[in-house]
Protein 1
Amino acid sequence: MSVRVGFIGAGGNAVWHMGFLKDIPDAQIVAVTDIAFEKAQAAAEKFGARAYASHKQMLDAEELDCCYISIPPHQHGEPEIDVIHRGLPFFVEKPLALNMALAEDILERVEKRKIGTCVGYQIRYVDVMDKAREMLKKTFVNAVNAHYVCGAIGGWYTRIALSGGQIVEQATHLVDLMRYIFGEIDWVMGTKRTGARVDSTTLDGTALGKGSISGAAAGLELHEYNIWDATTLLMQFRSGIPATFLCSCQVPYMWDVLLDIFATDFRLKITFSKMEILRKVDGQLKSEIVQGDETPKIDATFIEAVKTGDFSKIRSTYQDAVKTLRVTLAAVEAAREGAVVKL
Ligand SMILES: NC(=O)c1ccc[n+]([C@@H]2O[C@H](COP(=O)([O-])OP(=O)(O)OC[C@H]3O[C@@H](n4cnc5c(N)ncnc54)[C@H](O)[C@@H]3O)[C@@H](O)[C@H]2O)c1
């Protein structure tokens, strides 16, 4: 049986997922919708699907098995509610929403209707994370230091009311990964930086490569940039592990992400695709690089779950991703108020 997929949103990230679905024999992209209709048309033509100008039209006209929802953070709400109303499983991109009230409302609906979900935290599926989790079970973690630095991408990303800013929209991947590896967070403190020089050399649409937001998206002008240039967080995990996390989206000359774990027996330096293990062997500090399999597995896992009705292999459900959203929103509050925010 082939799984009939409908897309809500046909931007950079949606088209990136469509590219993987095309190679999954059980998946068939049958319909694409975007409020910018020409984007729905272009994607539909490329992947042999039908285009719609609104998700309501698509849901009325098509017999779907599931939906992908890949829209800007400020647009969440109605698409999820309509998809849940139809009883369809869905894949939704992070961040789930820009406030807890909406995410919790959607979660309540998901649970009431027992809808299967998958949230786009694809880094959880990289095999390096399995190895790291296995190794860390057998040692004592003293402390964690992480950073996410890159250039600011254009479009809706640059407005805090539309994207939530770097922690909520982008660095959420590392917060989520930390939760996946170390468990829940007890409290967070934060500081922020504003006032960076923003012009066409410091703001572009290429910083994140494929799947990122285009500079022209949403028609925003450079001078409208109002997100924070940098945020630093101090976090306490319930297990007792302390973590520091530095984020900046005003480092236009590079994209650098690192999760640096200092355990008693070794140090792990994890990027999204590889891990360096540093430890003493015969009195000498040795480094071993473990290259992860970078092929995204999230789409195949989601399609298999829809096909079988068994969502147990999904590593980030709506229920779980709500907890990551709560941490990132608490981090923003902590940095804005200069306070400790308890979770
Ligand atoms: N998991 C990842 O690694 C990853 C990577 C990139 C982006 N994302 C996420 O994917 C989402 C989309 O990002 P993007 O880069 O594709 O942005 P984008 O601006 O390129 O595309 C978003 C598209 O959604 C459309 N849209 C807006 N509201 C809509 C609605 N109500 N119905 C239908 N279409 C609607 C817009 O017209 C636009 O074409 C964001 O939440 C972003 O954070 C995730």
Protein 2
Amino acid sequence: MKRFLILLLLPILACNGLSTPPPSPSETGSPASTDNSPTQPLPPTATPPTDLPPNTTNFPNPDAYAWRLLTDNLERPVDLQPDNAGRLWLVEKAGHIHLFQNGQKVDEPFLDIEDRVNDAENEMGLLGLALHPDFAQNGYFYVNYTGARGDTFISRFTASGDSADPNSEVNLLRVEQPYPNHNGGTLNFGPDGYLYAGLGDGGSGGDPEGNGQSLDTLLGKILRIDVDSAVPYGVPPDNPFGDEIWAYGLRNPWRMSFDSLTGDLYIGDVGQGDWEEIDIIPAGSRGGENFGWDHREGAHDFEGGDGPAGMIDPIAEYSHNEGGCSVTGGYVYRGSMPEWNGIYLYGDYCTGQVWGLIRSGEAWQNQLLFGTDFRITSFGQDANGELYILDDNGAVYQLVRK
Ligand SMILES: [Ca+2]
Ligand SMILES: [Ca+2]
Ligand SMILES: [Ca+2]
């Protein structure tokens, strides 16, 4: 996120439309340009950045690092997002957002929408948060929650100073949920300024309605919408199917994130009974990826035989025989410890294990790094690229050197 000056030279990344995907990963990144950014013409030939630290090629020795407690007085935290004022926003599943600033959690909620959040079942509640790229100017932030009838709601709220009015809600999307589980929940603004949302296949087991492979439903998808071009939102003109769908064949993409440097999108897709997986949509993709569910679970046949051509297997997977049960997608480290630079960290909710992924060419190195006793609901990344773990038992931890 320190490298955003490079991006300010790219007018194609303006928030109000992206007619052509970024030409190559080396020219992409985040955050998107903002309204108060200086606008300069794109040089005829974009010069590769020279001041970027290289990605590490080897995993650091995890014994030299610790997960340091930040705060432990939360109720079921599920998301952590930074703002531009150095504050962390901590999301509690029951329907609250608390600020963390000056070294402590602010007890008075920043937002309380418990009155409309339905968290009757474990995978329901206030599940995801994303701040508008121009949050400093417009105060807009977006949440994903399960509400009336258990349906998925993606809504905008408006912050004003140290709180947000619950009555400022503008609903963008309401998606009927046939079962209480597999509601997805992740929300992310991409480097193109569009809002990406992960929706699960609707629930039950084995995708009984075939939602993952159906292009007639938003369930089992990654959505991509333009929150700036229309009210309540517009469909970007270059979406692959002419609607909100960006990618499909997903079971329950609970957490995903963009690499803040490259713009690659990493997705943790929760498996059925055997395989947990990490998928990737590279920067510059034109969308339309099919990640295989429910023909495939991880890199293995699941149901329905061969399935269509072109299904994309994960870049990493682990089996329930190794002790895991539910993958929690994380972030690519881009903080102050160069030995971690470029490593994608992810974990498992049930075992507390944390793995790292390093890209080397077209291949990926995957390594188990930490055994923790956390129930990992989510990872978080602050504005400086540092990484956090959220524990369902109420705590947040930061990755630090011992
Ligand atoms: Ca559901
Ligand atoms: Ca099925
Ligand atoms: Ca898959």
